């Protein structure tokens, strides 16, 4: 096999060494347009997991790396003159030049043809002459651009400028230093990479960078300014450059990673922000996977398909974590007024990979201190601390999220709803929410949707609230009121979600006459008189909800239903007083909110669910969502339930664990209103992490409560918690300990004998 490699960074070099070691008969040539000692940056951080893979695949490289690694365990967060140290993290780093030297030596010893100061031939020429072409030519990959119609790259730039520098002394920890200047917030990321040198990255938002005049300074002046701003962290020492320049991070994603016998590797295929130290790590792991797939598969096409199948989910997960970390630093100014330890905890858990439980294992003393500062009683996890909304005190921070059940008859909730909601109330959550309860027959999503537009429906709901208050005392029950708008008159979810009924359809209404998707019914544009009628339907339903005994009312302004349809510019094309600017699009939802608030008992809280983004170009953005939240808070909303999407059929959500929580976080800190976070929050560890970091006040979980109605009780048992934050119903107390199971471990041998 003849292999061509474009790019002499760590990923390309390591791929060359592995492929040659696994099969010495391979003819491998690597082109690097720069000299051997030319590289960007200073230090490289690798995880123990990556090092383990290297050790298994090539002990020679591992041993050379091991001799030069600097290891440390601590992270220091310095903010407003206070340093908080968290230990137990485990880092290993070395100089980038030294890493390249080790890989150069290994490649040469194995017989790889390294061609420095030489441009690689065009990829189409290489693909014709070689059996395999590995494009490891970095974030600005010419190979990727040459085959852009096939790879379909997506490149996103972000809001911060950063510069990669070094200091000639070794930090004794990974250091994050926050500087609040007259121009705005700046941050330093620093870590040692040898016994006498450290990497120093200085980062700030673009507008801060310009306000501070960095756009007008040359390299030497910029370096001097940075050294002065962070003089305390640097102990008064200077900074130095290595072809350093201010730049903006680019996130690279490709729809495909291979074309014929050409494959992308490392930054050419994907990038992840430096704040989680992942670029070199990902490239090295790509090389390991590619080499393994080539050894395991019978030919190149199947090897490249297997490589992409193996690596894509791992990379996607890392990119989600990196994006969360990147955005945290972009929005650092929102968190600077947090209590010091909570700020440090927030920073440490920013990517959602380090969690509350994980951090407790690493450094229990630090985590305990954060909990004390938050106000957790001894032995009480954050999720089991109370939270007050107006006259309602929730005994814990867990919410059973609204979930449409499509199981009502003529809008009347029956035995199913009693058992469904009653079981979740017995399961220990602080607040149990109904599904979206419709304010009119025409406002239903499906024929199976529950309502509150008749007295009979209200009486049936009273049966449910009485059960909750009697059998699960301390658990609150809330009702979510909504109108389907253009998404109504559809089949039950399991018969065809969002599909029109085959017969018996009812007319739809919406802000504008736009069908939800091709084949959907076109709604009628609401007139002023009809708007008044619908507002009164909400009022009447709210009055019935109050009499039915609900503790909280949520107004559904999300997911493309009627009120949401007014908020989004993609679904509201009106030119009257209810369309156009954001303020006009808010007008009708606020009118409904005010009218409902007027009849809803003063001591009972009201929340509003919104879609914080439409996940579609030209739709509601995160910035718009902050404005929407501020408006509802100004009108008396006690909390904002922050969901996303489902507004337009062509949305492109960025799914992932806790993927919607950054929107709640931003609204909480910018709009200064309590929030409920939702969206793939599935573990009690996530709930504790989000609450303790200050990213949300309450966490709403849907599918986990379908899987386990007693999710909250089990979360308490698994954490060894027994207190007022969650109470086992008397008939269930015998089950408050996890049942014993058969042993799955075997006794270890007393002796291990050779031969």
Automatic annotation (TrEMBL):
In this protein, which residues make up the domain named FAD-binding?
2-319
Composition bias (Basic and acidic residues) maps to 745-755
Task: Give the InterPro entries listed for this entry.
Answer: Aldolase_TIM, FAD-bd, FAD/NAD-bd_sf, OxRdtase_FMN_N, YqjM-like
Q: Where is the NADH:flavin oxidoreductase/NADH oxidase N-terminal domain?
A: 383-716
- Residues crossing the lipid bilayer are none
Region (Disordered), start-end ranges: 732-755
Taken from the record, one Pfam family name reads FAD_binding_3
Instruction: Give the NCBIfam families listed for this entry.
Output: PRK08255.1
This protein is called Bifunctional salicylyl-CoA 5-hydroxylase/oxidoreductase
Whose protein is this, by species?
Streptomyces camelliae
């Amino acid at each position: 096999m003849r292999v061509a490699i474009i790019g002499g960074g760590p990923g390309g070099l390591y791929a060359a060494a592995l492929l040659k070691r696994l099969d010495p008969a391979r003819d491998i040539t690597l082109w690097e347009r720069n000299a051997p000692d030319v590289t960007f940056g200073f230090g490289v951080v690798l995880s123990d997991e990556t090092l383990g893979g290297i050790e298994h695949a090539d002990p020679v490289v591992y041993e050379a790396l091991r001799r030069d690694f600097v290891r440390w365990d601590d992270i220091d967060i310095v903010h407003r003159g206070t340093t908080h140290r968290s230990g137990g993290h485990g880092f290993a780093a070395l100089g980038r030049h030294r890493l390249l030297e080790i890989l150069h030596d290994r490649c040469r010893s194995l017989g790889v043809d390294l061609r420095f100061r030489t441009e690689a031939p065009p990829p189409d020429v290489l693909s014709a002459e070689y059996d395999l072409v590995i494009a490891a030519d970095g974030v600005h990959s010419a190979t990727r651009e040459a085959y852009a119609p096939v790879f379909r790259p997506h490149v996103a730039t972000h809001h911060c400028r950063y510069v990669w520098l070094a200091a000639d002394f070794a930090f004794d920890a990974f250091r994050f230093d926050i500087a609040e200047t007259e121009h705005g917030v700046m941050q330093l990321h620093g870590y040692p990479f040898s016994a006498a040198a450290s990497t120093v990255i200085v980062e700030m938002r673009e507008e801060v960078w310009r306000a501070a005049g960095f756009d007008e300074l040359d390299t030497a002046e910029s370096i001097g300014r940075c050294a002065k701003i962070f003089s305390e962290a640097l102990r008064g020492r200077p900074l130095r450059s290595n072809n350093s320049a201010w730049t903006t991070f680019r996130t690279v994603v490709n729809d495909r990673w291979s074309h014929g016998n050409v494959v992308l590797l490392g930054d050419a295929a994907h990038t992840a922000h430096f704040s989680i130290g992942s670029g070199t790590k990902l490239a090295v792991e790509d090389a390991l996977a590619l080499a393994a797939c080539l050894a395991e598969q019978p030919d190149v096409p199947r090897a490249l398909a297997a490589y992409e199948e193996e690596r894509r989910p791992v990379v996607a997960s890392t990119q989600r974590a990196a994006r969360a970390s990147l955005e945290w630093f972009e929005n650092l100014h929102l968190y600077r007024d947090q209590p010091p330890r909570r700020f440090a905890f927030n920073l440490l858990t920013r990517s959602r990979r380090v969690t509350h439980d994980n951090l407790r294992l690493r450094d229990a003393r630090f985590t305990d201190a954060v909990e004390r500062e938050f106000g957790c009683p001894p032995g009480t996890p954050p999720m089991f601390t109370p939270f007050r909304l107006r006259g309602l005190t929730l005994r814990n921070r867990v919410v059973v999220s609204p979930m449409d059940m499509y199981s009502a008859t003529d809008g009347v909730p029956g035995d199913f709803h009693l058992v469904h909601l009653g079981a979740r109330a017995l399961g220990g959550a602080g607040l149990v929410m109904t599904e979206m309860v419709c304010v009119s027959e025409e406002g239903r999503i499906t024929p199976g949707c529950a309502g509150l537009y008749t007295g009979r429906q209200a009486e049936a709901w009273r049966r449910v609230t009485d059960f909750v208050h009697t059998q699960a005392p301390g658990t609150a029950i809330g009702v979510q009121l909504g109108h389907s708008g253009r998404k109504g008159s559809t089949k039950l979810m399991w018969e065809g979600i969002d599909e029109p009924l085959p017969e018996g359809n009812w007319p739809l209404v919406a802000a504008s006459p736009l069908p939800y998707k091709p084949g959907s019914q076109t709604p009628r544009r609401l007139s002023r008189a009809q708007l008044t009628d619908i507002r009164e339907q909400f009022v009447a339903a709210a009055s019935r909800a109050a009499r039915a005994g609900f503790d909280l009312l949520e107004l559904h302004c999300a997911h493309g239903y009627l009120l949401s349809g007014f908020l989004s510019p993609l679904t509201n094309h009106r030119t009257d007083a209810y369309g156009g600017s954001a303020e006009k699009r808010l007008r009708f939802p606020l009118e409904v909110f005010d009218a409902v608030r007027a009849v809803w008992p003063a001591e009972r809280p009201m929340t509003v669910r919104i879609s914080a983004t439409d996940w579609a170009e030209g739709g509601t953005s995160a910035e718009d969502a902050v404005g929407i939240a501020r408006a509802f808070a100004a009108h008396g909303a006690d909390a904002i339930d922050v969901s996303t999407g489902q507004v337009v059929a062509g949305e492109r959500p960025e799914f992932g664990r806790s993927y919607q929580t950054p929107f709640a976080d931003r609204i909480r800190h910018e709009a200064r209103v309590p929030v409920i976070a939702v969206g793939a929050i599935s573990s009690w560890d996530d709930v504790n992490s989000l609450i303790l970091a200050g990213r949300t006040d309450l966490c709403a979980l849907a599918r986990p409560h379908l899987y386990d109605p007693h999710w909250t009780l089990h979360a308490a048992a698994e954490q060894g918690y027994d207190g007022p934050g969650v109470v086992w119903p008397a008939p269930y107390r015998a089950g408050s300990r996890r049942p014993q199971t058969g042993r799955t471990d075997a006794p270890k041998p007393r002796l291990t004998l050779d031969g």
